[in-house]
Amino acid sequence: MDINLARAWVHTIAGAVAEQKDRLTWLDSAIGDADHGTNMHRGFTAASAALDGLVPDTVGAVLIGTGTMLLSFVGGASGPLFGGAFRAVGQTIYTPAATTQELAEALAAGLAEVTQIGAAVPGDKTVVDAWTPALAAFRHRADAGADLAEAALAAADAAEEGMRATAPLQARRGRASYLGTRSIGQLDPGAASTALIFRALADAVTA
Ligand code: ADP
Ligand code: MG
Ligand code: MG
Q1: Nearest alpha carbon, ligand 1 atom 23
Q2: ipTM above 0.95 for this complex
Q3: Could you tell which of 70, 81, 117 is best to mutate to test the pocket of ligand 1, judged by most ligand atoms within 8 Å of the CB?
Q4: Is this model's pTM higher than 0.95 or not?
Q5: Domain boundaries, the chain
Q6: Residues in domain DhaL (predicted)?
Q7: Ligand 1 atom closest to Cα of residue 32
Q8: Domain at 3-206, CATH homologous superfamily
């Protein structure tokens, strides 16, 4: 991943979130407070716009800048989670380009930050349920010597599968956990956003 691809990733996420804003909010209306699409749209619109004024010299600078904007503009539970995650991903890449293996380690740092902040484990019906299988798939391909396109496509597929697997779960973290068993049967909105983020990576890589 080089600086241009990092930029393209953020712009692609912003486009996907804009397109899926109503769906994300609709998912959050079932088990939350119906603001997830609005939150993510506000954050990624700001992050994407901020990139235009930035002349980064590392991949990390792009992603740290994005995370900082998300922290300021997303709000809710997901602001610190995605903001912290992007900052953590960026903080591991101090170079103008990262190898696919280095990006795997960066994505692992992002998940570690989400876990550190939110204390969710797989099965709690959160962002973690999409990010964990996405990272595993990405790493598996990277370790086998696959190129970034193949790793990113595998990660996007795994994230979507992880998102779908949140439906039968009962939420144990975040607002949806207040619903108890009534959270069962709905997709987790944050896992849906995470799937968008990994699909956007694959799309940006293969564009
Ligand atoms: P809020 O719930 O504050 O309105 P959002 O609607 O933007 O915030 O985001 C909700 C999403 O945040 C949930 O669908 C879930 O994926 C994620 N989330 C909430 N709490 C946690 C947590 N502790 N760990 C990981 N993800 C979480
Ligand atoms: Mg919400
Ligand atoms: Mg809210």
Answers
A1: 118
A2: yes
A3: 81
A4: yes
A5: 3-206
A6: 4-203
A7: 2
A8: DhaL domain (1.25.40.340)
